[in-house]
Write a structure and sequence with these properties.
Length: 232
């Protein structure tokens, strides 16, 4: 029981020992979050609109979410589910101005790393070097001021270099088929290039899909949501 709870990262959340074991489900499959709950797991430190986050903090369109060093935040907004890695800053843009709306028009990834899933919805992801049109997909991104890494885990995305209109590509992926690096400093038309598959796993995709009541569109038989990340 202790090993399972440690593998789930629960002792970094500030939850008491008994509560942590109850929350872990003793290794059971994660399920759809109840209405009104946004955050599934918080490891280390995070903030929403500059206020320190807890497991009870709501996350909505219009919010800015940040994570500290050696931290991770797993949360849900409507039909979107995300893992925000350490030292990341994410602006969640609202599609409607109503306070209770859960519709996202876009994500601005100012710095850091994010894994996200959504279905039957379209929105824009923007980094310092890339515009990414999301068409209801699973995807992973790493952003810094000079380079964006982007993997279409499954589904369809439109990738373009912000500084080079001739560098653009539509990716149709069944299972991590074409990860990309996107920059703005190469020769015209050459700011998108192939990249390796790094820093995210099918276990993580399965976990965040489960939090919105779905499964990934590929075969994943083990149901192992707490396994360590693999090196690719």
């Amino acid at each position: 029981m202790l090993v399972q709870a440690l593998a789930a990262g629960l002792f970094s959340t500030g939850v008491s020992g008994c509560a942590a074991l109850a929350q872990s489900g003793l290794g059971s499959r994660p399920s759809k979050l109840p209405p009104g709950q946004s955050i599934y797991r918080l490891v280390g430190t995070a903030s929403v609109n500059g206020t320190p986050a807890t497991l009870q903090t709501p996350v909505r369109p219009g919010d800015t979410v940040e994570t500290g060093k050696d931290s991770e935040l797993i949360f849900v907004i409507g039909e979107h589910s995300m893992i925000l890695r350490s030292e990341s800053r994410l602006v969640i843009e609202a599609q409607k101005k109503e306070a209770k709306s859960l519709l996202i028009s876009g994500l601005r990834m100012l710095t850091g790393k994010i894994l996200s899933v959504s279905r039957d919805t379209q929105f824009q992801v923007t980094t310092a070097t890339a515009n990414l049109g999301i068409r209801g997909t699973g995807w992973y991104a790493e952003a810094d001021p000079e380079l964006t890494y982007f993997c279409t885990c499954y589904g369809t995305t439109d990738a373009a270099s912000i500084k080079d209109p001739d560098s653009k590509e539509t990716v149709i992926s069944a299972h991590h088929d074409r990860p990309l690096y996107i920059t703005g400093k190469a020769a015209r038309g050459a700011n998108i290039r192939s990249a390796p598959f790094i820093n995210h796993t099918d276990q993580e995709l399965s976990l965040i899909e489960a939090l919105v009541g779905r499964s990934p569109p590929f075969i994943f038989p083990k149901g192992d949501y707490t396994g360590p990340r693999r090196d690719y």
